[in-house]
Amino acid sequence: MEHNDTYQTIAFASEEILMKEKGSKFFGYAFPIESEDEVKPIIENLKKQHPHAVHFCYAYQLGVAPKVSYRANDDGEPNNTAGAPIYGQIQSFGLTNVIVVVVRIFGGVKLGVGGLISAYKTTAQMTLEVCEVIEKTIDEQFLVSFDYKNMNKVMRVIKEKKLEIVAQEMEIDEDSGLPIGKIIIKTRKKNAEMVFDIFDLMFEIDIKIM
């Protein structure tokens, strides 16, 4: 079974985009993110940059199907006039692990529901158009544990299969007093089962999914 183990996101934070509509200013920003924990600090930072702005509307998406989480926030604008059109642009660009924030400074003229939807959508679109889109792989991590004497066997597989070492450490086994190696490795999702099986079949070597 072929897994789709790649996704598209942005390489780095966008430059600031400014769109003006009937006196209101809409500032657009996009940031690559890996978790929901990054959202609040991004918004707080933008609030410092724009102390006079009232609305900090945003949408983000994380993960890939079947595990996708997303949120669209209107931040005080009428329902579905800000967050939803921003999220629509994230979808239209086919991106994930990204947040797009549009900061509005009110210019004294109400734009109406249609005007707001158009302004937030256009700002989000302009913001994503200046971003560099990159393809990333979905990876799985394993913890491989082994007696020190089997270190070469483990390293040979890591080298042959071009696996990435995320972390490694040696510790002393309390029972035997002998050194034990622990290595966290990373591989593309589509190769994960094969890599797991290789280590799983090796004598005196333990592998666990992280």
TrEMBL record:
Domain Impact N-terminal: 22-127
UniProt family annotation: Belongs to the IMPACT family.
GO biological process, one term: regulation of translational initiation
GO cellular component term of the entry, any: cytoplasm
UniProt-listed PANTHER family: IMPACT FAMILY MEMBER YIGZ (PTHR16301:SF20), IMPACT-RELATED (PTHR16301)
Protein name as catalogued: YigZ family protein
